[in-house]
Every structure is written in C-alpha cells, then in structure tokens.
C-alpha cells in the first residue's frame, strides 16, 4: 500500500505513530541477535568493514548520542578507514571501534541498557517535543523527522542483520512502511540528481513484494513525483521492493542483480538510474 499524502492540517511526524514503531524496532533487533553465539556476532554484513556486532555498536552509538552521551575516544584515526566517507561515518566508527573488542553478549547488554534509557526519554515526549527544531542526518528539521529517520536506519540495519545471518522475516508492515518513507520520498532526488534523468523523461517504477507500489516520476527542469504520467513512460523499471530497498541503501549493486531487474523503454536511462539508486550516508 502506498502511503497517502498528508492533509495540510495533519501532523507531519506524529509522536503516537513514530514512537511505538521505533520501540518495536528496537525490540525486533534485540530478539534477532539474542540467540547469536560467539562466532555469529562476527558474521560480515553488506556494510563494508562491519560485522553484525559492529552494526549493534553503531545503533548503541546513535542512541547514546540522542541520550546525551559523548562518543568515546579511540586510538586510531577513524577518518583514515576506507569505508568512512564523511563526519557522520567517522562518528559512527568511534562507537564501532570502542566496542570492537567487547564480546557480543556484552554488546547486547549495552544495547539493552541504552534502549531502556531511550525508551524512558521517548515515553515522556509530547507532540510539541516532536515538532521542535533539531539537527538531523538530513540537515535542520524536527525531532520527529529525526525519529522517523531512526526507524528507517534501525529497520534497514535489521535487514542487514537478517541478510548476514540468513534469518528472513516479513519485510512489510507498519515499521517497513514508515522506515521506507525515507527511501520512497527521496526517489525524485535520486533519479534527478544522482541518476541524471534527462529533461522530459517520464519514468514508472513497478515494485512487487512486501512494499509493492507504483512510482511515477517526471522531469521538467527537475524531477518530481507525480500521481500519473502526462504521457507514455519513456523508461520503465520493475523489481522486487526488497531489492529496491537494498539498492537505495547501498547494500548491493545493480550490476550484480540485473537479472532481477526488468527495464523498458529507454533502457540506457533505466540502467543508469538503477545503478545510482544508493543515497544513504
């Protein structure tokens, strides 16, 4: 089901929607890793340089920052790591490095402690708190937008862990719809800025699977999502929504999955678009 546009008087980032889904996501991740043994914590993921345990360390770090806890000092130059591309990446790596030598069971306990602290903080927040200005990974926005980004980040990392340990799960439902709103809302930017969709392009994306939907984008000076195309599509793209999410998150490469993607119309444009879907930090 495609999320519907909000009315002008609707609350853009409702605390009563976002908060329970974020807390639910915290619990799902806990249950996903709770049964891991010592070696399984070191399973590599699709994120360069990160194991399952490193993802948990990253989640601990972000929630700790939101709880007002400073990043720990580490004895390496995190900026020099090949997978660190910006300051947010460097911040993440401080926490990852600081917990790299900590056993998985202790990392899980650390995660549970910070989740308990964040649950207490979030439970005390009102809609007014969610509407307050805040610095977020996408610039100055509101605290509510930041918390929707947290649902997105945690949900995407849930998928990372599932893919790494071979534990499939339902990739649809309310958490996925809320988290993926960050992806689907960015499609016009990604197609226009990163994929260089040409002026006059009319693009239709058909997604099947747990997050099935149809996305229409037209380029008239700039790319914009539209409810319906003004004429026949110049490029069509079809794939499973799970693959689309992983491409947008930079977890996999389109060139390695072309047999799972159907392109129509101007296939050169279509291929360029799917090869430049990754937009996450």
Automatic annotation (TrEMBL):
SUPFAM superfamilies: DinB/YfiT-like putative metalloenzymes. Residues 186-269 form the MDMPI C-terminal domain. GO terms for molecular function: metal ion binding. Residues 24-162 form the Mycothiol-dependent maleylpyruvate isomerase metal-binding domain. It holds the Pfam family MDMPI_C. This is Uncharacterized Actinobacterial protein.
């Amino acid at each position: 089901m495609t999320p519907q546009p909000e009315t002008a008087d609707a609350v853009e980032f409702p605390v009563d929607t976002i908060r329970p889904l974020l807390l639910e996501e915290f619990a799902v991740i806990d249950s996903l890793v709770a049964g891991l043994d010592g070696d399984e914590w070191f399973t590599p993921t699709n994120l360069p340089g990160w194991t399952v345990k490193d993802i948990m360390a990253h989640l601990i770090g972000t929630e700790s920052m939101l709880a007002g806890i400073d990043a720990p000092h580490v004895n390496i130059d995190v900026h020099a790591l090949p997978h660190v591309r910006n300051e947010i990446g460097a911040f993440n790596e401080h926490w990852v490095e600081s917990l790299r030598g900590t056993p998985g069971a202790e990392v899980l306990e650390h995660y549970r402690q910070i989740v308990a602290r964040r649950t207490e903080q979030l439970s005390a927040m009102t809609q007014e708190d969610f509407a307050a200005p805040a610095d977020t990974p996408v610039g100055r926005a509101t605290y509510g937008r930041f918390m929707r980004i947290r649902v997105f980040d945690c949900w995407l990392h849930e998928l990372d862990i599932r893919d790494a340990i071979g534990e499939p799960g339902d990739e649809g439902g309310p958490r996925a719809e809320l988290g993926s709103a960050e992806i689907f809302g960015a499609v016009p930017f990604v197609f226009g800025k990163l994929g260089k969709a040409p002026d006059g392009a009319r693009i239709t994306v058909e997604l099947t699977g747990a997050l099935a939907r149809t996305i229409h984008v037209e380029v008239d000076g700039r790319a914009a999502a539209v409810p319906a195309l003004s004429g026949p599509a110049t490029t069509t793209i079809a794939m499973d929504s799970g693959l689309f999410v992983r491409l947008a998150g930079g977890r996999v490469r389109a060139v390695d999955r072309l047999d799972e993607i159907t392109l129509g119309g101007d296939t050169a444009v279509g291929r360029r678009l799917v090869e430049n879907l990754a937009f996450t930090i």
